[in-house]
Amino acid sequence: MKITEVKAVYPDYRNVVPSWRTHFWQIVVRIETDQGIVGVGYGGGGVAAVEVVNKHFRELLLDKEIATTQDIKEAWDHLYSASLPYGRKGIAIMALSGVDLALWDLLGKAENCPVYELIGDRKKDSVRSYATGTDVEWYAELGFTAHKFPHRWVSDNDISTAIVTADKARNLLGPKALIMIDTYMSWSFDITLEMSKSLKEFDIYWFEDVINPDDLAAQAELRSLVKPTLIAGGEHEFTEYGYQEIARTKALGLWQPDITWCGGLTSGIRITEMGNALDIPVVPHRGGEVWGLHLIVSSTCDNLAEVLPGTKGGNKDELWIGEPHPVNGYISPTDGPGFGVTVNEALLP
Ligand SMILES: [Mg+2]
Predict the structure, then answer these.
(1) Superfamily name with CATH number, domain 3-114
(2) In the chain, where are the structural domains located?
(3) What residues contact 155, with CB distance under 8 A and at least 6 apart?
(4) What are the catalytic residues?
(5) Which among 140, 267, 287, 328 has the fewest CB atoms less than 10 Å away?
């Protein structure tokens, strides 16, 4: 089938996720074909990425034939090369991610199969999910056995706030639960060491994004100093080229590519293969959303998917209709064609 139209939009979000980050600047990309099949994808980069898709990628994609996963990979390489002078990372690759995911959705619909079947043999029926957010009482009620809480370093009191939060999570979720901390780059080398000592009894599975993600050498050094806790990260890295640097410097003990930012599923597959070859677990950022979930079930990603339930009674925009939700802490993609979701047109401009 031939591509006849490509359009990105920034949704008209009404409710922000009642969580530690208000939104992810996510865009929707829609690709139409001469056979009437439409693919829809999700990218990052906000209104700037919308411009990249509509003013640059669109003209490069019109009239292209998409019939195989190889065609998608070639389209990816073409857009990557064309945007290279201003791209390689950040907004251009977040825009490319939305296009790539729309192409995978398109191909799944054309073949009448879920995207996970296009990736390979399904290896996991359902995936253990972990709840990121602040309402741990509710996550325990919902049956989660894995949880990540946000922790921002503001003052010296924050060693004790971390202890109190970790203690509460461990008490509510039990001794076998996985408990992780995301610092969103607010700790430092020394604070990470101090936290490692102060939180020892709570058996934290990973510390995420502890410092500036460009400081690969310091993160590599921290890995052995905070064992057995892992130094995790990668949501701010892009494509297999970016991950090659993480691999070369041994900066991270657990990789977290965001499939809607890192270059889409095409990059997600390449990054996962690279991580596996090095025995590094790969746990996609927001992996409980369909874009990551299809990769997790059909690849050697760890059996762990991030979801953001928010807080009990909080409102959320339902941008994707037909999205799977975790049940008793486990989540599974639907077997509908493509990614198995449709976009809620009421939230599009
Ligand atoms: Mg994070």
Answers:
(1) Enolase-like, N-terminal domain (3.30.390.10)
(2) 3-114, 119-344
(3) none
(4) 285
(5) 328
Cross-strand partners of 300: none
Q: Tell me: the pLDDT tens digits for 216-272?
A: 999 999 999 999 999 999 999 999 999 999 999 999 999 999 999 999 999 999 999
pLDDT tens digits for range 63-95:
999 999 999 999 999 999 999 999 999 999 999
Task: Specify the 3-state DSSP secondary structure of 114.
Answer: strand
> What is the whole-number distance in angstroms between the Cα of residue 51 and the centre of ligand 1?
26
Distance in Å, CA 37 to ligand 1 centroid: 35
Q: Give me the helices (H) in 90-134, please.
A: 91-111, 115-119
Which residue type sits at 54?
N
Whether the per-residue pLDDT at 17 is higher than 60: the answer is no
Whole-number Å distance, alpha carbon 70 to ligand 1 midpoint, is 31
Tokens of 308: 């953001």
Measured in Å, residue 39 CA sits from the centre of ligand 1 at: 28
- Output the CATH code of domain 119-344: 3.20.20.120
Distance (Å, rounded) from C-alpha 48 to C-alpha 207?
31
Task: Collect residues with CB below 5 Å from ion ligand 1.
Answer: 182, 208
